[in-house]
Amino acid sequence: PHCPPRHGRFFCVRRVAALPAAQGPADYVGRGVITTATYAARQFGVGSAMGMMKAAKLCPQAIVLPVDFSEIRKYSQLFKSTITDIAPLMQDRGVDEVYIDFTEVPGGQREGGRVLARLIQKAIFEKTGLTCSVGVAPNKLLAKMASEFNKPNGISIVYESDLQEKIWPLHVRKINGIGPKAGEKLAKLHVHTIGELAAQDPGWLVDNFGKATGAWMHEAAWGRDDRPVVTESEPVSMSRETTFDRDLHAVRNKAELGAIFTDLCVRLGEDLQRKGYVAKTIGIKLRYDDFKIATRDQTSDSYTDDGATIRRLAGQCLKRVPLEKKLRLLGVRAATLARADEV
């Protein structure tokens, strides 16, 4: 069985633990936009990606906490190493989510995986003080959905025979991979639940969503997913970005922005060198003070992992975006990657 532990409020829980005065009231983390919120804050309607002003109106008594990324990285690495000590076959899915294959772990099949899931929860709490929800299922698709059933510290077991009772009543957006646009289109086609999606003819789905997506939707609605737990994979891209403490203007804060931009490019080059990759495509990402995002890419004739070259290519991208508005975030990305020793 596959099992993804989820830390639903990972960004917040360590900050709360570090600030005793914040244990009781509702709290949330972010600058301008909420990164995450405790369950107490969520009861007032506060949630991630919400504007700070709106959150303040919904929950004026909340305590706003800064994001401490070094602390997040530390505890993310600690919870993952705790898991691999018990179940070595683990796929990293971001700062607070992993997939684990229980199949060959001693005792992994006891009580449908519940015994091992409890052991993992206990070990994570003892090492980090963090709770986590765990979903256990025959494949990654169902395990991902199961992990959402019993937050913040529960264990949910989903068998293939549970599909009709536990999965089909859920909204189609609960399928990992069906986003807002596909969900909206399905709603216009009068398909709202996973069960209604499963009832559709595969040919009808292909006609409306294309050959690959339509076929995948049909398989997903029937709980089918043969993707293995992958412990290592080739990266598609690497990036470095930063959100500013205050909004910066490209002209009035030119020197400060230039220094930040150069530093991001140098760090990205160091990341590539450390991991043994080179890149052909360099891109930038800007988020303006109105939260709109602009991206541009530049593809070179040759591969590079050099910070100065990345800075030059990223600078060419920067000339192709409007810079009248203030900036909240600046990022640099390397794509079209290849192994340095294979080029």
Secondary structure: elements and pairs:
Layout: E1 2-3, E2 5-6, H1 10-18, E3 27-31, E4 33-37, H2 39-42, H3 52-58, E5 63-65, H4 69-86, E6 90-92, E7 98-101, H5 114-128, E8 133-136, H6 140-146, E9 155-157, H7 163-167, H8 180-188, H9 194-198, H10 202-209, H11 211-221, E10 237-248, H12 254-275, E11 277-288, E12 293-304, H13 307-318, E13 327-339
Parallel strand pairs: 3-5, 8-9
Antiparallel strand pairs: 1-7, 2-8, 3-4, 6-7, 10-13, 11-12, 11-13
Helix pairs in contact: 4-5, 10-11, 12-13
Total helix count?
Answer: 13
Fraction in helix:
25-40%
Strand order in the sheet with the most strands? 10-13-11-12
Report low-confidence residues grouped into runs of 5 or more: 8-25
Family: Belongs to the DNA polymerase type-Y family.
EC number: 2.7.7.7
Protein name: DNA polymerase kappa
GO molecular function: damaged DNA binding; DNA-directed DNA polymerase activity; metal ion binding
